[in-house]
Amino acid sequence: MSALKELKRHLKPGQVYRRADLAQWSNAVDRHLKQLVKEGTLQKVSQGVYAYLKKTSFGKAAPEDYKLVEAFLKTDDFLLFSSNAYNALGVGTTQLYNEQVVYNRKRHGKFRLGNRTFNFQMKPYFPKEVSKEFLLVDLVNNVNKLAEDQDVVLERVSHVAANMDTSSLKKEAQLYGGVRARKLFASIDNKTVTHAA
User: Fold this and answer.
1) Within a 10 A sphere around the Cβ of 57, how many other Cβ atoms?
2) With b meaning 16 or more CB within 10 Å and e meaning fewer, what string describes 31-52?
3) Could you list the pLDDT tens digit for every one of the 197 residues in the chain?
4) End-to-end alpha-carbon separation of the chain, Å?
5) Whole-structure pTM value
6) Among candidate residues 64, 65, 68, 63, the one with its CA nearest the CA of residue 48
7) Which label site among 1, 11, 26, 121 has the fewest CB atoms less than 10 Å from its CB?
8) DSSP assignment, residue 192?
9) Cβ(54)–Cβ(63) below 8 Å
């Protein structure tokens, strides 16, 4: 079996690989990577990161965002979500964003992986999963970056917050909120919230 075929045997559709991952199965990894990209088996998504696209009835499908980010960061210690999720909170935001947000401890800035843009933001703390409470806190943290009127959004946040699990919300605000978010959510008292400036 040729060295290239041996390397291909280890590849699985839909997976993302770092050059270092592939080096263990190849005696000439750079040459083999060039060949695999040229023939369309692998797609280079970033410096040293390659995806083996899954074939579907609609053509080749890009790998999951989570796998792309995990290979790029070399860790699963991150939180991946879209700012579009704010729109489901019922606070009047309607702006659509075409990038994913990645809270992590290693990289900062906008990076293009394959044909997707990811906004990497370094944060000391973030949850393992996105909850409605976390999203509401995060929205308040980032309210100055939104296209909508800040005061109107914050007024609606107060009303939505009053109808949520207040203890969870206060806990999330203490863990992940900035000064404004902590102040706003600390004042929740079963249906009555003081609007924080």
Assistant:
1) 5
2) ebbeebeeeebbbebbebbbbb
3) 588 888 999 999 999 999 999 999 988 999 999 999 999 899 999 999 999 988 877 777 778 999 999 999 999 999 999 999 999 999 988 888 888 999 999 999 999 998 889 999 999 999 999 999 999 999 999 999 888 889 999 999 999 998 898 899 999 999 999 999 999 998 876 544 444 44
4) 69
5) 0.84
6) 68
7) 1
8) B
9) yes
Neighbours of 20 (CB within 10 A): 10
Which domains, ranges and CATH numbers included, belong to the chain? 3-63 (1.10.10), 66-186 (no CATH)
What is the token pair recorded at 182?
Answer: 């902590």
Q: Are 150 and 140 in contact (CB under 8 A)?
A: no
Residues in a beta bridge with 28:
none
